[in-house]
Amino acid sequence: MGAGQSSRSERIIDDAPAAENVAGQAPVPPQAHMPAPLPKGWPHRSRSRLVGLNRQSVHVQMWGAGKTLLFLHGAGASGHSWHPVMELLGQEYQVVVFDLPGHGFTKTSAGFAVSIENVAQSTGALIDALDLDPHLIIGHSAGAAIALHGLSTDILSSNGFVAINGAFMPFPGAAGFLFPLFAKLLRLNPFVPHLFAGLGAKTDRIERLVRETGSATDIPTLDQYQYLLAQPSHVAGALRMMANWDLRPLMGLARDCAVPSLFVCGQADKAVAPEESRIAARTVLHGELSELPDLGHLAHEEEPSLVSALIKSFAQSVAE
Q: Taking the CB of residue 98, how many other CB atoms lie within 10 A of it?
């Protein structure tokens, strides 16, 4: 990370409201729309709102006009990860992104089980609350799995679906055993997220995490990741999501996904095997595959112009 990037990150952190103030805000009444208390340096801060849903205050950002593109981010990220793509597509479409349960600035009650089924259901409820009619639902990593689950079970509906490096298969090896233990660990020791946040907030560790996904570290969203991974509430949300994640039924359900679907994978992805996108493209009823050489798991943040062009071309090809 260059000197300019470090100073931007420091401004985001220094200008942020105290973590207790954000996490302890009064619950948003159901269906109410209120301004969201974001750090002053956060991109598109003026376009943020909080939407009250059952057990959640959901942070949403939306702008533009035309057909609606709804974006879902991956585990451990927030809606910010889609900003570079949305800035390009928002010139021709209405673009909408929200923070998943417990992530970013979305607040979720402790009783909300962050399973793929529940998150798909809450995504459908948010679409209804905002009176949206998505032309495309676009998901990255775990966000792609949520969208595919919802579209395969009629929880969600859209004219088309785009997955960027979708995480569709169960966690391999030891991860499949260890992640469920996080749920018990969080119940026994609520200070665990503070420990993880302290470890994750270091600049060199953020860059190493990005490199380990197969992506370059000069992505424009690095400062936001550094801010988020310093927030215990965000870290706890990501751990809760992993602890409740069960992808074993997904490919069986995906056989019923009838919407036109584009699966995009970076061939350098070290976080999710590109083979998962290839399998998914063969499994759904109308699947296409696009492979991107030299790009990693954060392909949409590495090359937003390329990914935006793919999404736009697919959006134009999909009938209403």
A: 27
- Pick from 276, 262, 270: which is nearest to 294 by CA? 270
Q: Name the token pair of 249.
A: 């039924």
Q: Rounded to whole angstroms, how far apart are CA atoms 288 and 285? A: 10
DSSP label of 172: P
Containing 162, the helix (H) or strand (E) segment is strand 160-164
pLDDT in tens, 241-275: 887 888 999 999 999 999 999 999 999 999 899 99
Q: Which residues contact 104 (CB under 8 A, 6 or more apart)?
A: 59, 77, 78, 79, 80, 228, 234
State the pLDDT confidence band at 315, using cuts at 50, 70 and 90.
very high
Report residue 240 CA to chain centroid gap: 14
Q: Which of 143, 164, 166, 154 is nearest to 251 (CA)?
A: 166
Give the percent of the chain with pLDDT over 70: 78
* Mean pLDDT, rounded, of the chain: 83
At 180-216, the pLDDT tens digits run 444 444 444 444 454 555 555 667 878 888 898 999 9
Looking at the DSSP bridge assignments, the partners of residue 49 are 60
- Pairing of β 261-266 and β 287-292: parallel
CA of 288: how far to CAs of 154, 179, 192, 257, 277, in Å?
A: 21, 31, 41, 13, 10
Sequence-distant (6+) residues with CB within 8 A of 307 are 85, 164, 264, 299, 300
The pLDDT value given to residue 81: 97
Q: Indicate the pairing of strand 56-63 with strand 48-53.
A: antiparallel
Q: Which residues are bridge partners to 95 per DSSP?
A: 63, 69
